[in-house]
Write a structure and sequence with these properties.
- The protein is of the alpha/beta class.
- It contains 10 helices and 16 strands.
- The chain is globular and about 55 Å long.
- It binds nicotinamide-adenine-dinucleotide.
- The site of nicotinamide-adenine-dinucleotide has 34 residues, from helix 1 and helix 3.
């Protein structure tokens, strides 16, 4: 089926799906948005509520629909599934969410869908790999939101500490979107100035303890938010909006999306987040950025955990 470049769908209209829909409405990237949920009334209610904002946004048709309505989409975002309850890890969701994902992918592949699948449901790396395997689509067309959100959290904390615009901070969180993720401190910089040097320049040196505290703050951020308000959704909505924009506008931006690895960093048979070029083809290239020996080992360890999780669900 011919892909409509101005049409997107969101499957799962809970906190995350509805927030992404709101972000899409604000961005004006799409002229059609279809909301799909097992709870049809929830999708209808969200479509009605969002449509009320249209006079103050760019023209867009927002409807609740089914799988027959979304086969021509350029982008399908999958957020269907259970979210973390206080104290639960993302990997704890694996059983429930793999079952839901299988149903969703079955419905999509039963139609002639030619666009890009963007998985957001957790555990996102395992589910992205499952979506790729189950769909049989080429790897460029199946990506996960990965550590794009975690990377934003790191940039934000560093920007705040240094009193600079977080958009000038260049640093990545890579690996699992979850407990085994790591910060790539070795390549971190602020507008091209090595992070360590920049901290000295600002009279606020960064010692090992503080780096560890910042990393833990990023890694545990979702737990802290969930403990206070029950779910996380605005940050991920901004991250998904950014990924969608890179695809729709063919930006070829470097983002740590979750992607199928085929030998990069010596890893294969899994999805993991590493910096990749994102453009109109979805995943355009996985980049092998320089890592310190310690970072390489931490990435390998994160990969082992993902491979175990993948094996545990028989993929
Ligand atoms: N990747 C990230 O960075 C990130 C960030 C936040 C949340 N999440 C994940 O996003 C997912 C959704 O979280 P949430 O807070 O919106 O949960 P939620 O419970 O508010 O919403 C989930 C929605 O999925 C729907 N759903 C369930 N099964 C479905 C199916 N088979 N088909 C269509 N819809 C179905 C439910 O009816 C519900 O509306 C969770 O897995 C959560 O962990 C990911």
């Amino acid at each position: 089926m011919k892909v409509n470049p101005r049409k997107a769908a969101i499957i799962g209209c809970g906190f995350v799906g509805a927030s992404i829909a709101f972000r899409f409405l604000q961005q004006g990237l799409f002229s059609q948005l279809v909301l799909v949920d097992v709870n049809r009334e929830k999708a209808e209610g969200e479509a009605m509520d969002l449509s009320d904002g249209l006079p103050y946004a760019e023209a867009m048709e927002i409807t609740a629909g089914g799988y027959d309505d979304i086969a021509d989409c350029a982008l399908i975002v999958i957020t269907a599934g259970a979210n973390q309850k206080p104290g639960e890890t993302r990997l704890d969701l694996i059983g429930k969410n793999i079952a839901i994902l299988k149903g969703v992918i079955g419905e999509i592949t039963a139609r002639d869908f030619g666009g890009i699948l963007l998985v957001v449901s957790n555990p996102v790396d395992v589910l992205t790999y499952a979506a790729w395997k189950l769909s049989g689509y080429p790897k460029n067309r199946v990506i996960g939101s990965g550590t794009v959100l975690d990377t934003a959290r790191l940039k934000q904390i560093l920007g705040e500490k240094l009193g600079v615009d977080s958009r000038n901070v260049h640093a990545f969180i890579v690996g699992e979107h979850g407990d085994s993720e790591l910060a790539v401190w070795s390549g971190a910089n602020v507008s091209g100035v090595d992070l360590d040097q920049f901290c000295h320049l600002r009279g606020d040196p960064l010692d090992h303890e503080e780096m560890e505290r910042i990393y833990q703050g990023v890694r545990d951020s979702a737990y802290e938010i969930i403990r206070r308000k029950g779910a996380t959704y605005y940050g991920i909505a901004m991250a998904v909006g950014r990924i969608a924009q890179c695809i729709l506008r063919d930006e070829k931006a470097v983002l740590p999306i979750s992607a199928v690895l085929e030998g990069q960093y010596g890893l294969e048979g899994l999805c993991l987040s590493v910096p990749s070029i994102v453009g109109k083809g979805g995943l355009e290239e996985v980049l092998e950025i320089p890592l310190s020996a310690q970072e390489r080992e931490a990435l390998a360890s994160s990969a082992r955990q993902m491979q175990e999780a993948i094996a545990s669900v028989g993929l």
